[in-house]
């Protein structure tokens, strides 16, 4: 079973972390906000309070053991970029990063993010497809 780390436990990150855990995956959840960590503690394998810009803290949390890291830090673009870079440099094979806009996505691609997601945009497309296919009542 794959091991995951989710960094940033806002609406998107916490949803990814709990969904993975419910599917039986090992999930390491990290946030700098103690309340966010406490709220998810019972749902995931490990929940740790740390500023993810702190490379030593990430190492101590065991980030190098995960197969996939999801960087779900939102508003703070600088932190999002730094953390993506650090996690990639620590050797995590697959890093998924949340982008706020196209320019941010370009930077993430240049520093080695393996997959870039735009949660609101991607979800909008999915909803539109479902609506256009007329399947909306089937779910
Ligand atoms: P969402 O839309 O998913 O709710 P958002 O775009 O509002 O997210 P933020 O709330 O800015 O994003 O960030 C998501 C989470 O990332 C927050 O819980 C915040 O505490 C956490 N976070 C921000 N910076 C760091 C950091 N340097 N280290 C760890 N966690 C961080």
Automatic annotation (TrEMBL):
**One BP annotation, GO:** potassium ion transport
What's a single GO MF annotation on this record?
A: monoatomic cation transmembrane transporter activity
Signal peptide region: none
Q: Where is the RCK N-terminal domain?
A: 1-117
Q: What is this protein called?
A: Trk system potassium uptake protein TrkA
Q: Which organism is it from?
A: Thermanaeromonas toyohensis ToBE
Q: Which residues of the whole protein are included?
A: 1 to 139 of 216
């Amino acid at each position: 079973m794959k091991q995951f780390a989710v960094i940033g436990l806002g609406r998107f990150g916490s949803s990814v972390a709990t969904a993975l855990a419910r599917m039986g995956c090992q999930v390491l959840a990290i946030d700098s906000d103690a309340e966010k960590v406490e709220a998810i503690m019972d749902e995931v394998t490990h929940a740790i309070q740390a500023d993810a810009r702190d490379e030593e803290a990430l190492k101590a949390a065991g980030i190098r053991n995960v197969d996939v890291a999801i960087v779900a830090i939102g508003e703070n673009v600088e932190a999002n970029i730094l953390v993506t870079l650090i996690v990639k440099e620590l050797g995590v094979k697959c890093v998924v990063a949340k982008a706020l806009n196209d320019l941010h996505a370009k930077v993430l691609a240049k520093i080695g993010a393996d997959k870039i997601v735009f949660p609101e945009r991607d979800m909008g497309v999915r909803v539109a497809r479902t609506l256009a296919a007329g399947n909306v009542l089937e779910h």
